[in-house]
Amino acid sequence: MINKHFRMVFGLLLAIALIATGCGQGKTESSNGNSKGGTVSEGAQNIENLPAAIAAKDEIKLMVIRKIGGDDHTAQFLVGAKQEGESLGFKVDTFSANGDTAKFHDAIAQATDGGYDGVVISHGDDPATVDAVKKLTDKGIPVVAFDSVGELSAIPGVTLTSQDDEALAQFSLDQLVKEKGEEAKIVYLWVDGFPPMVRRNKVYQDTLAKYPGIKEVERFGVANANTSVDTQNAVAAMLTKHPKGEIDAIFATWDAFAIGAARALIEAGRTEIKIYGIDVSNADLQIMQEDNSPWAATAAVDPKMIGAVNVRLLAKKIAGEETPSTYNLEAALIDQEGLKKSSEPVNMVTLADIIPGWGTSDAFEEEWMKSLKSANGK
């Protein structure tokens, strides 16, 4: 009799536990482990123009995987992607491999079997990336790839995005020639093997051909988890070989290079050498605005906006809407003279006061996305 009574009580408690568990399943876990309420279906209520493929899902899960990391550009890219996805009611997980190829490909493999509705990858630079992306699309998972190998654009279901690398390099080099002349003596900070670097190098070679008086004093570069520190050490060592007058400028094809170079120049008291870079972050802007800073100009696209636009493209793919195979994001030049026009220190947000349109883009932002954001209070 006691056993029978115990089983009845236990069964009642188990039923209550199951009901409580079911009531809690409307929450999702964000990539930082914080519980986040809300699903696509909740945000989609009463949205008439919502694509059927989006409306049919209770939850949409995205994965954003970046090969390089350890820099502010990466952090802002990931934040932009996450914020855009969550504003649409999606669950967004992010991962940076910090330059570790094995970890990068392992993350893509996990995403392939992780129940994701779409994947953004960044800086996939080897044939293995093509194979990995094919495995994703073979499972019906659409992909948007930023600054990755060109072969990806030929895979159905993939859009290859990039900053307008030719424009970035041209803006920076044109400013260098404008300020330092057609016979400038320069140091070239660059590393081969990355698609954006290859495109930037083509513009650099064309510039040397256009201005035969320009002399390349030295070139070097390394891409790793300590790029800025290694660059600082390399530039510091180089300065001991070249006294004042032997170098006019440094062309840095990545802001991680420029940060290290700026530190070395400042510590050595060699700020007569000016830096012309590519990419921007709050840390970069701070250095550029310091008194007697050697960092004269940088060409850039807002990395946070890059992340957002990539997610919009992915959302359109999930919705079954047409997307291009390639897309370039528009670049802009930021120089010290423009920054000096502000009465307050300029950061990534207030940069829009100096450069009209900075940090904003309506690219691929459909009306149904705006409706979803509104429904989600964004």
Series of H and E elements: HEEHHEHEHEHEEHEHEHEHEHEHEEHH
- Globally, the shape reads globular
CA-CA gap between termini: 59 Å
- Beta-strand percent range: 15-25%
Overall average pLDDT:
89
Q: For the CA atoms, what is the radius of gyration? A: 25 Å
Point out poorly predicted stretches: 1-38
Number of strands: 14
What is the strand arrangement across the widest sheet?
4-3-5-6-7-13
Concise synopsis of the structure shown:
The chain is 44% helix and 18% strand.
Could you describe the 3D structure shown?
Helices cover 44% and strands 18% of the residues. It is α/β, with parallel strands linked by helices and 378 residues long. Strands 4-3-5-6-7-13 form a six-stranded parallel beta sheet, with helices on both faces. A six-stranded mixed beta sheet has the order 9-8-10-11-12-14, sandwiched between helices. Mean pLDDT is 89; it is low at 1-38.
Question: How would you describe this structure in keywords?
Answer:
378 residues; 6-stranded mixed β-sheet; 14 helices; 18% strand; disordered N terminus
